[in-house]
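dumping this here before i forget
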Amino acid sequence: MATTPIITIKGLSVSYERKRVLTNIYLNIEKALIYGVIGPNGAGKSTLFKAILGLIDTDSGAIHIKGQSIKDLRKQVVYVPQKNDVDWQFPATVYDIVLMGRYPHKKVLEQINAQDREIADQALQEMGILPLKNRQIGELSGGQQQRVFLARALCQQADIFLLDEPFVGIDITTEQTIIATLKKLAQQGKTLLVVHHDLSTVEQYFDKVILLNQRLIICDDTDKAFTPENIAKAYGGQLPILHKTGMIEK
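structure:
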């Protein structure tokens, strides 16, 4: 029996400065699965996330989360941006950043309390960075920084996670920690969309794949969607480069 999608996207089109970035996207995102969002540079992957979050204007289409607008369910959706979008010199400690995950649960002027701090400590512990809680974020390694932002996401206790290239610039140990955490979250009923560029790990990491190149190529179970034919449709002329770099073996 088909389940009700947790996110529905109907006819989404987005343009930047009159250049179309996404065209007529239809997606039904199911609960408790990890989706890999795959496609070449400029395919519209980050744009898709920003549209779901209501951060950009769209040309057309409708996006609903649990049948409602993102404005009504913002605290149930957490976003982990690309590392390049973060100001790592911002004068904040690891603990400051992780506690930001509690802000969506707070009313205006409501203070962080002991329960919030306990939730933050648990998130730090889960990501293995509790001893770093008083460090400034700019002092950390790339892997440690990514763990901080995933800890912030855990602290929000959201139902839907949007992660934009969380595995870029990190060590293999952190990558294994993160994917283990994502799989645990899916087992707990969370839904995860992950922009990912390393095609060699797609089959290991994701339950379903969304292949994009401004248009939707396919969204299906990984073994059905991640085929040479569909990859060729998404990457086109970039495919020989991917073979040469070893990012794909098919």
